[in-house]
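Study both lines:
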Amino acid sequence: MGRATTRRRVMRVTLGTEPTSRPDTIVGEEPLEIRVGGHPLAVTMRTPGDDMDLAMGFLLGEGLIATAADVAGMRYCAGSEGSVDDEGRLTYNVLDVTLAPGVPEPDVDLRRNFYTTSSCGVCGRASIDAVRLRGRYEIGDDPVRITAEVLVDLPGRLRRAQRLFAATGGLHAAALADVDGEVLVVREDVGRHNAVDKVVGWAARAGRVPLRGHVLLVSGRASFELVQKALLAGIPVLAAVSAPSALAVDLAEECGMTLAGFVRGSSMNLYTGAHRVILPAVAAAR
C-alpha cells in the first residue's frame, strides 16, 4: 500500500537567522486508476488510504451507482500496467470494480472522455441539467433542521480530527455529521473531491445512503463538483469553511440544498436553504 506520508530532510529558512536542516513530514500523493469490469474509467491523484471508499464514492458521485448494493466487489489489480512496480511488487494504485448483475457499465464514450465539472471547464445550465438527470434522490423535501450553533462548531471538530493535516499541513478534509453535531466520519486527501468521495463511499458501504438528515462539511471552498457529489448522495446540507462558486450556489438552490459558506468562528453566510438553519433568538428578533 502506498504511504499517506513520507519523511524528507528540508532546509528551513528564516530571515535574519542561519538556515537549518531538519526532517519534515510530507503528505503522500499517488495516482489511483479506477477500472470497472477491467476497463479503465478514471485516474485521480490521491493520498493513499481508504481507496475502496474513494472508488465507491466516486461511482456514486458520478451517478453510475445508487448504493453499495450496485457493486459486487472491488480488488487491487496485479499483472497490468501501473499495478506493479519495477521489482514486480503490487503498487495498490489500480483498483478494479465489479458491478452487480443488471447494473449497466459506463459506456465507451464515458470511459474515453469522463464527465468532470469545474476541472474541465464545463459550466452553466448544461452542467446543472446533466447533474439533475443523473440524480436519484430528492433533497428539497428533506425536513432536517440544524441550529446555527451546531454548524459553526463543526469546523473546529473537523480540525481536531485532521491527524494527517496536523503532521503535514497539506491536506483537504471532509466530514459527515448529524444534526446534533456528532461527527460520524472524517477523511483527508490532497484532493478536496477525493476527501468527499471517501466520506460518501464510507457511508455507502455502511448502508447509510441516501444521507437524509445529514451535514457534509468541507475544509475548503464549495465548488460545483462538491455540491454535485452531495446531491447524488442525498445530503441536504453542505457547509464549507471557505467560499462557494456561483455555479455551486445555482445548483444548490435548484435542488433545494442548504449551502453555508465561510463557516468560521461564530459566523457563516447562508447562500441557499436558510429555512433549515435555526437561528439564535437574538438574531431571529432583528
Observations:
- Residues 216 and 265 are 18 Å apart (CA to CA).
- The longest helix spans residues 148-161.
